[in-house]
């Protein structure tokens, strides 16, 4: 098989995928501006914990709730329509936040803004993944998914850094207009793309098809369960505990640098994933997850801070390699008509235990050391990986399934302009 470079160039020469990459980059930049900029804007106007908490809670609840229903309308409507709907909700949220900043300090307004942003962002991601599976040729999907991960991580570094810079210059008023411009540009680019699949009739639509696709593929169910445990009980608690631990030692600024290092590792992981050529895709993906062990071990051992940087870098590599291989496997083996529902179930599973992990971290953070948290994370991570490796089909991520389970090449109607 040819090296990844020709495939990468082929993916970039695909005008539809190039436009789709631009759409994602614009969205990720806008999301990053809101994620970092909104707390700064609200705090800077004396909103206090009540208003910021109202926005954050509405965002989280709406995101989880929308994923319960996203598995339906992502496949009921065309994928491009869903992406445009998500962008419209983002614009609504930014407009409402603009009203708030301009002098309408309403808690209700912030709740509406948070809910609109939560739904728009959570729905966009599974719809986008399903859309790639439709308009990109099968042999280019791994490169396409790697470029998607690469674009996401670059944006996750650039946007927060830009917000920090404008905050330093006292120009936070520009954050919301910039987010609106990015989202509006995404809408314009989307309108030039094919409608894609989805759009099945209500008579044909069966809400449980996504669940059935997961349950009939033990390897998919196993990975979804492992991801829920890892995100909810390993990643989320560290997201809460590490900044607090650093703040107690007056070095909280280190956290921002650690996140940048994590993103840099993810960039390398996305590039590396394009070069992976093996039938044992699942084994490689699960092995990649073990690259998170050095970070957890450094925390458990109370190792010097520099070792945490190395751990975060490897953790970024880990998540990017796994993500590219996992998304590519779903795009290959899940029928297109149910793909949006399956991606929504995966996203919902990942989000389901996150509130639990956050609450546990808040509840026990004052009573246990970071070393204990590191040990607990190691146990959960390794146990979940060992558990899922015993599931049938995991080693190959379903490549031994009957050919009827493999997604057919996109039809002319699905890719026509």
Relevant terms:
417 residues
Q: Describe it for me?
A:
It is globular, with a radius of gyration of 21 Å. With 417 residues, it is mostly helical. The C terminus is likely disordered. The protein is built from 17 helices and no strands. Helices cover 78% and strands 0% of the residues. The longest helix has 31 residues.
- Gyration radius from CA atoms, angstroms: 21 Å
What summary fits the major beta sheet? none
**Global outline:** globular
SSE succession: HHHHHHHHHHHHHHHHH
Which residue ranges are poorly predicted, with pLDDT under 50 across at least 5 consecutive positions?
401-417
Structural class: mainly alpha
Q: Percentage of helical residues?
A: over 70%
Q: What does the average pLDDT come to?
A: 77
Count of alpha and pi helical runs: 17
Q: How many strands appear in the DSSP assignment?
A: 0
Q: β content, as a range? A: under 5%
| Termini Cα gap | 31 Å
Q: Can you lay out the helices and strands and say which pair or pack?
A:
Blueprint: H1 4-13, H2 15-44, H3 48-76, H4 79-103, H5 107-135, H6 141-168, H7 175-190, H8 209-215, H9 218-248, H10 253-273, H11 281-289, H12 293-300, H13 305-333, H14 336-352, H15 354-364, H16 370-389, H17 412-415
Helix pairs in contact: 1-6, 2-3, 2-4, 2-5, 2-6, 2-7, 3-5, 3-14, 4-5, 4-7, 5-13, 5-14, 6-10, 6-13, 8-14, 9-14, 9-15, 9-16, 10-13, 11-13, 12-13, 12-16
Task: Characterize this entry briefly.
The chain is mainly alpha-helical and 417 residues long. The protein has helices at 4-13, 15-44, 48-76, 79-103, 107-135, 141-168, 175-190, 209-215, 218-248, 253-273, 281-289, 293-300, 305-333, 336-352, 354-364, 370-389, 412-415.
């Amino acid at each position: 098989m040819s090296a990844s470079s020709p495939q990468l160039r082929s993916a970039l020469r695909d005008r539809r995928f190039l436009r789709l990459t631009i759409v994602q980059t614009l969205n990720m930049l806008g999301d990053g501006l809101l994620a970092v900029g909104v707390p700064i804007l609200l705090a800077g106007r004396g909103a206090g914990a009540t208003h910021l908490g109202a926005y954050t809670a509405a965002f989280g609840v709406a995101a989880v709730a929308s994923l319960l229903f996203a598995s339906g309308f992502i496949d009921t409507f065309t994928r491009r329509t869903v992406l445009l709907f998500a962008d419209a909700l983002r614009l609504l949220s930014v407009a409402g936040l603009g009203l708030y900043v301009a002098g309408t300090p309403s808690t209700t307004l912030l709740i509406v803004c948070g809910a609109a942003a939560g739904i728009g962002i959570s729905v966009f991601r599974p719809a986008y993944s399903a859309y790639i599976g439709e308009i990109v040729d099968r042999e280019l999907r791994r490169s396409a998914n790697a470029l998607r991960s690469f674009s996401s991580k670059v944006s996750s570094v650039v946007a927060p850094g830009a917000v920090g810079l404008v905050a330093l210059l006292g120009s936070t008023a520009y954050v919301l207009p910039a987010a609106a411009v990015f989202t509006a540009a995404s809408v314009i680019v989307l309108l030039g793309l094919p409608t894609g699949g989805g759009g099945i009739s209500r008579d044909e639509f069966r809400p449980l098809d996504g669940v059935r696709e997961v349950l009939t593929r033990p390897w998919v169910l196993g990975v979804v369960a492992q991801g829920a445990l890892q995100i909810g009980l390993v990643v989320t608690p560290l997201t809460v505990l590490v900044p607090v631990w650093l703040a107690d030692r007056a070095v909280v600024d280190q956290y921002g640098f650690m996140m940048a290092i994590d993103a840099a590792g993810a960039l390398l992981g996305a590039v590396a994933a394009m070069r992976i050529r093996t039938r044992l895709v699942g084994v490689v993906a699960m092995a990649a997850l073990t690259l998170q062990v050095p970070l957890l071990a450094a925390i458990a051992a109370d190792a010097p801070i520099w070792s945490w940087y190395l751990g975060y870098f490897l953790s970024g590599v880990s998540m990017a390699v796994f993500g590219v291989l996992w998304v590519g496997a779903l795009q290959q083996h899940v029928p297109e008509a149910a793909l949006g529902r399956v991606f929504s179930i995966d996203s919902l599973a990942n989000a389901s235990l996150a509130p639990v992990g956050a609450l546990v971290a808040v509840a026990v953070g004052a009573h246990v050391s970071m070393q204990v948290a590191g040990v607990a994370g190691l146990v959960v991570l390794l146990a979940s990986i060992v558990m899922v490796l015993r599931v049938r089909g995991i080693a190959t991520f379903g490549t031994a399934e009957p050919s009827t389970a493999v997604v057919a090449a996109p039809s002319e109607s699905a890719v026509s302009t």
